[in-house]
């Protein structure tokens, strides 16, 4: 069996050579017969699959070399089906668009169909495809079909990028055979593709009327970024198209994916760029445990994270809820906790992405964070630290705020530092944070807050001598909102603002801890009214604050 563990490194070499050397030469000295006005239309035809054309519209600076696909037999696309009723679930049972072959398999036209397609210099026998197939069958009763176009993925990248047009036709041919001859509902067909396989799935979607869903797993960027929709995966290729971007850097920065949104919803875990755990130390440890997988990650760790995240979503109860935000920075500082009144600002990454309530939207960017290894899923929490500004307080203080949180489900997060670096708190102004944890707290019912003032040696203005200034932090409340509770009404029901018992605010001296929790003596409505007047316009979406079950909470 073929094993291309060094494929990512070869891909990098090939693409750097093409983009760094061939593109300038093509721009400056292209032959007369290749000029845009003199290119002849080229055609690839097959008696079963039909014809493909290569026109001048396929040529552009990002696609300087365009080839016709190789012959169908050279690409040699194969399909292997797995079902729960297979005697050996991961045995290679081949299937094709012929009734005599289909009827010898355990294919069931009444069950949903999942196609899984690999990318460049890969095969359908890779470990991750089998793991995803297994996870699908453990989750539900599906027909899972692995697509193997390994023979067509071997040439130069430009040739492989051409060959996936035929792979798309092959997938469509089999899917349409299911639809025409077995009564399969196209809405129950779901295509998943990694890298070039994402675009192959897009080509297939163009030929399958009413296709239910395509999931792009880090769609390949080189030759596809900023190209017309007919060249790449896009939101018209299925009723719903979702993409996961994990390696969005440019190829010259060692990225194989794309930053460009190409679906109805595009997910950007950890910004969509370098993924946690994709560093030489972590990969070195992985190589000790699993040499082939470690070598593979050495060249394309972030690129492969997309299919690992999707597979994880099949196995984990953690929700993988992502939030729409103007950019990743705004998400990281806690500015995008709300799913919106119509719940259009949140979607589940992975298997449940098709539960999104506004599927007709286009190129919606959603963000979330993950851990460096499986289970990758985190729970996200928005924190709003609401400070007071009595006369004795400094205008601002800086330092570290640690919290210990107690949930109503008995779970606890201890000694959590809200930021790695010291933070400036302007008294009288709210401060937003976001943190992640594997712990689901449900509703926070009690909190311990510890304050440490921090002088910066390089900033003389930050020095605060005890006899000359006040190092204390003055708190009105700390609001915790669990961002992974959906829909929006549920998130609001779990949002709690923790205050000090019996007073409007609490003074926390340097290196001291205060207890914040619910008490029947709190004047919640008065506190909420004060907050509503104090928060600047636009800080809260509807500028209202509600009392929920005796707790002061704000919709943000």
UniProtKB/TrEMBL annotation:
One of its GO terms (molecular function) is triacylglycerol lipase activity. It comes from the Eukaryota. It holds the Pfam family Lipase. GO terms for biological process: lipid catabolic process. This is Lipase domain-containing protein. It is found in: Secreted. GO terms for cellular component: extracellular space. Belongs to the AB hydrolase superfamily. Lipase family. InterPro entries: AB_hydrolase_fold (IPR029058), Lipase (IPR013818), Lipase_N (IPR033906), Lipase_panc (IPR002331), PLAT/LH2_dom_sf (IPR036392), TAG_lipase (IPR000734). Gene3D superfamilies: alpha/beta hydrolase, PLAT/LH2 domain. Its main location: secreted. Residues 1-20 form the signal peptide. Residues 43-376 form the Lipase domain. It comes from Petrolisthes cinctipes (Flat porcelain crab). Keywords: Disulfide bond, Secreted, Signal.
